[in-house]
Amino acid sequence: MTRPIRVLAxxxxxAVLATTSACKRETREFRGYPPSAxxxxxxxxxxxxxxxxxPEVTARSPYEHxxxxxxxxxxxxxxxxxxxxxxxxxxxxxxPLMDDEWIYGSQPENIFETIAEGRPxxxxxxxxxxxxxxxxxxxxxxxxxxxxxxxxxxxxxRDDHMQYKQPEQEENPTRPKRSTLPPAATQP
Amino acid sequence: xxxxRRTAADLGTDHCRRPERETVAHPTNQPVNNQAAPxxxxxxxxxxxxxxSKLLRAGVLAAALLAACGRPARExxxxxxxxxxxxxxxxxxxRAVATDGQWVRPTGDYAGTRFSGLDQINASNVRGLRLAWTxxxxxxxxxxxxxxxxxxxxxxxxxxxxxxxxxxxxxTLKWTYRPQPxxxxxxxxxxxxxxxxVVYDAGRxxxxxxxxxxxxxxxATGREVWRARVGDINIGETxxxxxxxxxxxxxxxxxxxxxxxxGWLTALDEATGKVAWRAYATGPDxxxxxxxGFHPFYPQDRGRDLGVKTWPGDAWKIGGGTAxxxxxxxxxxxxxxxxxxxxxxxxxxxxxxxxxWTAGVFxxxxxxxxxxxxxxxxxxxxxxxxxxxxxxxxxxxxxxxxRKTLLHPDRNGYLYVMDRTSGEVISATPFVHLNxxxxxxxxxxxxxxxxxxxxxxxxxxxxxxPAAPGAxxxxxSSWSPRTQLLYIPHQNLCMDYEGVxxxxxxxxxxxxxxxxxxxxPGGYRGLFTAWDxxxxxxxxxxxxxxxxxxxxxxxxxxxxxxxxxxxxxKAVDARTGRLLWQFKTGSGIISQxxxxxxxxxxQYVAVLDGVGGWSGAIVAxxxxxxxxxxxxxMINAMKDLPQYxxxxxxxxxxxxx
Lengths: 188, 657
Prior knowledge:
- The complex is a heterodimer.
- By secondary structure, chain A is an all-alpha fold.
- In chain A, 33% of the residues lie in helices and 2% in strands.
- Chain A has a domain at 80-158 and 167-186: Cytochrome c-like domain (Cytochrome Bc1 Complex, Chain D, domain 2), CATH 1.10.760.
């Protein structure tokens, strides 16, 4: 290697090193724990509980701060045809997932349950077909659609596909609202 | 000019011979002379013959006299030489003939003309049309059904949960039937949870539930007579279409072309609900009910097992070809005409070949389901153009020759005039702006695709016209034998399209495309076209802000009715298109208007509001328009609909004061 090139290479690698170490490194958990293994992980599905008020314990989603897992969740969302029913968050056969309305709750465990156990008005039960770990990745991605607790640098950027919506990164964090009955259930 | 009212007398059908039929009692004050089977009212316009026609004329006279009694003087005086609309008529063979005072099936007659011989409401007085009463169905999803009218009762079926209401002519509820379909069915219904109607025959009502059951209900009591499970939601099958009841069979077809189902048309025994035959749209000839009697007009449709050979491997097993549109029937040829929907997945790279027998039309014998001929509108369908739209049975004189034709406004944008005896395409003329094809080659019967707009995986193709729902989707057209025009409610949409890989998982969508739709040239999204099939051009055309997603209704009063998605029910002049009357309904209209004459001798017009369907899902299902791929890309074209209308679901009945 000639001298000028060697100098250039050195300068470049220092620059690369500098930039990478400047970023906040994400911690990657290699093994996630299923929510049932978390003692006391009680997530209320309704804001009404009998007796004295109990502190609500929220199951910790293992991947809310993990950009890789969120992007995996996005891939799985297409792979398992979630996108066929929910489009890219705006909904279709299924309700929108990018808005602030949640029929069955927006907590990670609510969404985990939705995916694993299905919901009565046509959400298929994917439990058994999708492993728990992948369901958690889906949970993280679904929550990133409305920027729920998923930090901006973890949320997805611009797609390689046709542009159908702004990237999750640019989504403003929402405050989840409980939806009334799902529209489909409005029946006499 | 041929008068469709005559045809019934000539045609009659074997229906009436069936011994097990119940007789329906008719109130004596009604100018109806129904006998065993009050619902038979034959096909489209056809010349009357000999004795039958003489008797018919006598019948018309009698009916006219009867009908005249209860009518206001104004009406009586209006009489020209043409007799008032016939009520009960009896043909020479003693068979009962229906009356166009009633409305017994969504398509009106078997021919699918949706033409009513009633002329009490006409172009000169329709501006006085008033709301008589309303009835709330209590269901707030897209209402696509047609209100029926039989013997003093209106019957309406709702979207999921598919309630069936019997309502008196004064608006009072007589009974409700609740089939309680599985709630999970809602998740596999591609384009809202709609139902396209109920059919009346011989004292019973027949319709389909979203979770793929067919039910027969006693029209007098609302009691269930039988129910039959015809499909399985676990493989993505639903049923949204209105059955065709003919010759003792209830013929139904499945939906689920976006879910990788295998399409079929099934005949159930009218008395018991037992399956008489099932014809698949793909697979070996034996499954498709193709036998020695099959004589397609074009050579590419001849050969063994093309329903297998025009697909790669086993792709035909999940290849779509559903049957959710309106079926029509020609009693003289004893053929029913059934459009076949799109192949699946939309991404055509997954299915090299012509993908038979999807995106075309079958002529079948309703007795055994055997195919007589087939024609493919969209071989190897690239853009979800289907072939599902109605085939209206009409006789035309073309080039000095009397032809038995079908009129078919296809999603691909061409108005097909076909020979219904053979499946030959007589003409195919664009009725909307299009660029996806360059014409239909009448020698081969194939459309010439625009290679520049060929989609493929990972490529975004822009500005394809028409868009996936086509130049016209489900919304049924109406033919007036008086004006010889076909009134087509439709849309002007184009799309950007990107093929993506499709992954088949039973019971989930199998589409493989990202789509974004938008208004076509002109900026309006809806059109209402009066098409002259002989001159092959529009007689007139109206534009609307939103796709015209309702059906059309033409009457002998030379008035044509349709509704808009922003909630206007309109009456226009059948000859000029001039707006004569409109009424603002609570919600947008995507249903099928109908008209009938009550026992009081007055003509009524009925329509349901309740926006929804594929185009209205943004309102009915509360979709989020920030994702323009929602509802298979439809939402991008419908973003402003929530500013114009909200959910609804009511029946409106109108009459002259």
